[in-house]
C-alpha cells in the first residue's frame, strides 16, 4: 500500500492480481450482475490508484479498505440504476397515458402545474446546482456520466445535486406556507 501511495510502477498491478477475484466476487454478490460488477471493479481500482494515500494501516488491513471502497461504489451504482429505471418507468407511463387520452384532462393540467413549479424551483437555486440537477434528473445522466462530460469531479457533482435538492425542498416548503 505504501508503494501504491507513492505511485510506484507495478504497485497497482500487484494489488490487482492479489485482490481482484475477492473484490469481484463481493461485487457480483452485491450487484447480481456480472457486467456491472466488472465495470465497477475497474472503477474501484481506479479509485484505489487515486486514493491510495488515504489508506490508514492503523484502521485495518488493506483488504478491508478495498472491500469498503468496492461496497460503496456498488451501492452508488445500484442506487443510480434504480433511479434511472424508476424515471424511465414513470416517463413511459406518462407517455402511454398521453397517447391514450390526447385531450387535456385534469391530470394534464396538474402535470403542467407541476412542471411550472419545478421550473420555478430550479430557477431559485444557483446555476451550477441547477445544471447538476438537470443533468442527472431531467437528462437521465448518471452523476458519473455528468462528471465525465463536464470534467467536474464526481464528488463536486454529488454535492451540487444534494445542496440543490435541499434548497429546492426548502423553496417548495416556502411556497406551500407563505
Give the topology, please:
Blueprint: H1 2-5, H2 11-31, H3 34-51, H4 62-100, H5 106-123, H6 127-138, H7 143-150, H8 154-176
Helix pairs in contact: 2-3, 2-4, 3-4, 6-8, 7-8
Write up this protein.
By secondary structure, this protein is mostly helical. The chain has two domains: 1-102, Orthogonal Bundle (Rna Polymerase Sigma Factor, Chain: A), CATH 1.10.1740; 104-178, Orthogonal Bundle (Arc Repressor Mutant, subunit A). It has eight helices and no strands. The chain is elongated and about 55 Å long.
Concise account of the structure shown:
This protein is an all-alpha fold and 178 residues long.
> What spatial form do the alpha-carbon principal axes imply?
elongated
**What's the number of helices?**
8
The share of residues in helices is: over 70%
Order of helices and strands: HHHHHHHH
The largest pleated sheet is described as:
none
CATH class of the largest domain: Mainly Alpha
As for the number of domains, it is 2
Structural class comes to mainly alpha
**What is the tally of beta strands?**
0
> What is the CATH topology assignment of the largest domain?
Rna Polymerase Sigma Factor, Chain: A
- Going by CATH, the architecture of the largest domain would be Orthogonal Bundle
- Can you tell me the CATH superfamily of the largest domain? RNA polymerase sigma factor, region 2, helix turn helix motif
Q: What is the distance, rounded to the nearest whole angstrom, between the alpha carbons of the first and last residues? A: 56 Å
Weakly predicted, low-confidence segments? none
Which value, in Å, is the CA radius of gyration?
A: 21 Å
Strand content: under 5%
Amino acid at each position: 500500500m505504501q508503494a501504491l501511495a507513492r505511485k510506484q510502477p507495478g504497485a497497482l498491478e500487484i494489488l490487482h492480481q492479489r485482490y481482484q477475484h475477492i473484490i469481484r466476487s463481493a461485487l457480483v454478490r452485491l450487484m447480481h450482475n456480472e457486467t456491472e460488477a466488472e465495470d465497477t471493479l475497474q472503477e474501484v481500482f481506479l479509485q484505489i490508484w487515486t486514493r491510495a494515500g488515504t489508506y490508514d494501516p492503523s484502521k485495518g488491513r488493506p483488504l478491508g479498505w478495498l472491500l469498503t471502497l468496492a461496497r460503496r461504489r456498488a451501492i452508488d451504482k445500484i442506487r443510480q440504476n434504480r433511479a434511472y429505471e424508476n424515471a424511465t418507468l414513470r416517463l413511459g407511463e406518462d407517455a402511454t397515458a398521453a397517447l391514450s387520452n390526447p385531450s387535456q384532462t385534469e391530470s394534464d393540467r396538474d402535470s403542467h402545474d407541476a412542471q411550472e413549479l419545478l421550473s420555478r424551483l430550479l430557477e431559485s437555486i444557483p446555476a451550477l446546482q441547477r445544471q447538476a440537477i438537470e443533468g442527472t434528473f431531467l437528462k437521465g445522466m448518471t452523476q458519473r456520466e455528468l462528471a465525465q462530460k463536464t470534467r467536474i469531479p464526481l464528488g463536486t457533482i454529488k454535492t451540487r445535486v444534494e445542496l440543490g435538492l435541499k434548497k429546492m425542498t426548502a423553496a417548495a416548503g416556502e411556497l406551500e406556507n407563505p
